Structures are given as C-alpha cells and as structure tokens.
Amino acid sequence: MKNLLFSSAVFVCLACFCLEFGLISTANATTNTPPATTMPDTCSAHNGSCEKCVSFPGAKCFYCETTKICAKYPAQEIFPTKYCALSEARWGVCFLNFEALIIAMGVIGGVLLIGLVTCIYCCCCRSGSNRAKMDREELEYARKKAERQVRRGRTKAERKAKNDEIRRKYGLLKNEEEDSYTELTEHV
C-alpha cells in the first residue's frame, strides 16, 4: 500500500512539474501545418505603462521594467529570459516580478502537493489503525459481555439458592425425585 502511495505521489509530482514548466505541450509540435492566423502585436501599443500592458486581455503581454517595453509573451519558451531579466519582467500584475511569481507559484504548488499527500496518508494509511482500534474495542466489548453473563449467572444461582432455602424453611420445597410423574392405575 505504501509503495502504491509513493508511486502515485511521484507520478503526480512529475505531472505537475511537466505541466508547470511546459514539458508537455497541448499543441502538436510535430505537424507541419502552418500556424493559425495570429493577432497583430498589439502589446507594443502599451509601451511605457506596466498597468496597461499586463491588463491586456488574455494575459498575452509582459512588461520589462528596465527597457519600459511591453511585448507579446513568447509562448514557445517557458521564461522570457531572452527579452528581459526575470527580476525585471512583469506578467499578470505589476507589483510582482516574474522571478518572485515563479517562486510563489512553486511554494503554493509545494504546499498543495504536501496537503494532497497528507490527505492521502490520513485517508489510506491511518484507516488500518482505525481497523485495529475497532478490533480492540470489539474484543473489549466481548470480554465485558462475557463478564456480565458470568455475573448474571452467579446472581441467578444465588437467588435460586436463597429462594430454595426459604421454601425448605416453610416446607414448600418439593423434591425433584418426588415430583416425578407416577402412573395412575385404576382399581377394579
């Protein structure tokens, strides 16, 4: 069970890593079809203003603080390091540089992954200890039930002995041998 849990956690980590860093592409790169018509580079119209650049619909533009240029995000690359240093590139929001954004996304992804692994551990691995706890409780219940039956039997025997003693005292106790049925014969 632990090997399966470890294998699934490794698989999830690898899948997240590949998706995060673009190693798995949703587009088929091996086909030789010409690319679809692309929209003209309208990002350059927002040069000089970070807020206007990063608020472009679809998050298609990034802003470089050093050169004050708004450029179309290079979709073929994971990071736009050719065009601007990561510490100076802004994408999505102006107050957070690309380097900090990558670190923050990594930390959030790590926390989510640790939370997922913890949940899997709590659900799968700890259920075995719950079964053991339930087995212990069942044994304890069976032991207490047996003790109650023994006490009930002892109390019943004491009560019967006390009642028989009272019956003997007043002559009401019948012998079990005398109590047997006898056949009546008719006298002719």
TrEMBL record:
InterPro entries: PTTG1IP. Residues 129-156 form a coiled coil. Residues 1-29 form the signal peptide. The keyword Iron-sulfur does not apply. The keyword Iron-sulfur does not apply. GO terms for cellular component: cytoplasm; nucleus. This is Pituitary tumor-transforming gene 1 protein-interacting protein-like isoform X2. Keywords: Coiled coil, Membrane, Signal, Transmembrane, Transmembrane helix. GO terms for biological process: protein import into nucleus. It comes from the Eukaryota.
